[in-house]
Specification:
Shape: elongated
Strand content: 5-15%
Number of domains: 2
Helix content: 40-55%
Strand order of the largest sheet: 2-1-10-5-6
Largest sheet: 5 strands, mixed
C-alpha cells in the first residue's frame, strides 16, 4: 500500500526550478568542499605536505575558513529550497522501477543523507557543541568525500535533464519561479550578511546571528578554550620556565624572555568556527630561541602546552613556520600582558595557521 504523504502539486516542483537552485547549491558546496580541504590539510598535513604549507599570505587561512563557514551556512538555506522543489519525486511510488532506477534512487538517498549530516555537524561545530561520541574533524572530513563523490555521480546521471533545463525559456519561466528564486537569494543574503561579520571586519555591525563577535571579548579577541577548561591556573604557571631543546638545550624564565629583544607583529588569528580578527602581538621570534639552542634552519618543532588535556595539547610546526621571522612566542596582546585565557605566560602566534595550532600556555619547544 502506498504511504500517505503530503502532496505538493505546485508548478514550481519542476526540473527547471530544481536546476536553477541546484546551480547555486553546487557553487556553495564546491567552495565549502575546497576550503574545507585547505583547513583540514593545514591542521593535519600528510607527511609529504608538511613542508609545502605556505606562510603567506598571512591572512590566507582567515579568508579560506571564512569562506568555508559562509558557504556552508548558505548551503543550508539552498538545501532546504532544493529539497522542497524535488520533494514529490523523493517519495515517488513505486520506490523504483528497475535495477538501474534503484541505483539512481540509492545515490540520491546517499547524497541527501551525507549533505544533511555534513551541514548539520558543521553548524553544531561553529557553536562548539559536540553531542556525538565520534571525532568531528575526521568524520567531517570523511563524509565530505562522500558528498563530493555522490554529487558527481548524481550530476552524471542527471546530465541530460540538467542540460535541457539549464537556461530559462521565454514563456515557460513564470513570475512565480522568479519570485521563488528571488526569495531564496534574499534568504541566502540575509544569512550571509548576519553571520559573515565575524570574519569580514567591515560587516561586523551586521553580525547578529554569528556565535562570535571578535570585537566584544577579552583583550579584543574571542576565547574558544578557556584556562579553566584546560585546567591551567596562575598557580600552575608559578615558577614557569620555557624549555627549549636542541644541540644546546636550555631553560628560560619569563623575566629573561621579557629582557630579550622584542618584536611586534600584526597578524590575524582565525578559528575553524569561522571567526577571525587582526591583533598586535609582541614577543620573541621563535627563530631567535632556536638559534640560541643551536637548532639549524629547516627544522620542524613540537610545541607542548601546560594544559592538562586536549586534542591540541601538543602541536607540530613545520620548518617554514619555525623559520618565519613573524612567528613569535608571544608575551603581549594588543599592548597588554597576555591574560590567562589568552595563554599567559606565553603562546604561539604564526602566519596563516588555524587558531587551534596557535598553542597557548607554552611550556616546551622541542626541535625534531
Amino acid at each position: 500500500m502506498r504511504p500517505t504523504l503530503p502532496q505538493f502539486r505546485g508548478r514550481l516542483h519542476d526540473p527547471r526550478t530544481a536546476v536553477a537552485i541546484g546551480r547555486w547549491l553546487g557553487t556553495a558546496v564546491l567552495v565549502c568542499f575546497l576550503t574545507g580541504l585547505i583547513s583540514h590539510f593545514l591542521q593535519h598535513p600528510p607527511g609529504w605536505m608538511a613542508g609545502l604549507l605556505p606562510t603567506r599570505p598571512t591572512w590566507g587561512y582567515r579568508l579560506t575558513q571564512g569562506l568555508h563557514v559562509a558557504s556552508g551556512l548558505a548551503a543550508i538555506v539552498l538545501v532546504m529550497a532544493k529539497l522542497w522543489t524535488v520533494y514529490p519525486r523523493l517519495f515517488a511510488w513505486p520506490p523504483f522501477r528497475s535495477p538501474a532506477h534503484l541505483v539512481e534512487r540509492l545515490t540520491i538517498a546517499l547524497l541527501v543523507a551525507a549533505t544533511v549530516f555534513e551541514l548539520f555537524t558543521g553548524l553544531i561545530n561553529i557553536l562548539q557543541w559536540y553531542p556525538w561520541p565520534f571525532s568531528f574533524t575526521s568524520t567531517h572530513y570523511a563524509v565530505a568525500w562522500i558528498v563530493a563523490g555522490s554529487l558527481l555521480l548524481h550530476l552524471a546521471v542527471k546530465a541530460p535533464l540538467i542540460r535541457d533545463n539549464w537556461r530559462s525559456r521565454p514563456g515557460v519561466d513564470t513570475a512565480d519561479r522568479r519570485a521563488l528564486l528571488t526569495g531564496v537569494g534574499a534568504a541566502v543574503g540575509a544569512v550571509t550578511l548576519t553571520t559573515v561579520g565575524q570574519a569580514v571586519t567591515p560587516l561586523r555591525a551586521f553580525d547578529l546571528l554569528a556565535p562570535r563577535n571578535p570585537d566584544v571579548e577579552t583583550q579584543g579577541l574571542p576565547i574558544n578554550r578557556t584556562a579553566a577548561a584546560a585546567q591551567v591556573t596562575y598557580a600552575s604557571s608559578d615558577g614557569w620556565a620555557l624549555e627549549v631543546t636542541g644541540p644546546k638545550p636550555y631553560r628560560i624564565t619569563l623575566a629573561e624572555l621579557n629582557a630579550l629583544p622584542q618584536m611586534e607583529v600584526r597578524l590575524p588569528i582565525a578559528c575553524v568556527e569561522g571567526w577571525s580578527a587582526n591583533a598586535w602581538w609582541t614577543g620573541v621570534p621563535i627563530r631567535d630561541l632556536l638559534d640560541r639552542a643551536g637548532v639549524p634552519r629547516g627544522t620542524s618543532l613540537r610545541v607542548e602546552s601546560l594544559e592538562v588535556w586536549g586534542y591540541y595539547r601538543t602541536m607540530e610546526m613545520p620548518a617554514q613556520y619555525a623559520d618565519d621571522l613573524t612567528t613569535l612566542l608571544a608575551l603581549r596582546l594588543n599592548g597588554e600582558v597576555l591574560s590567562l585565557d589568552h595563554g599567559y605566560p606565553a603562546r604561539i602566534i604564526a602566519p596563516n595557521r588555524p587558531g587551534v595550532l596557535q598553542t597557548k600556555w607554552v611550556s616546551r619547544i622541542e626541535a625534531l
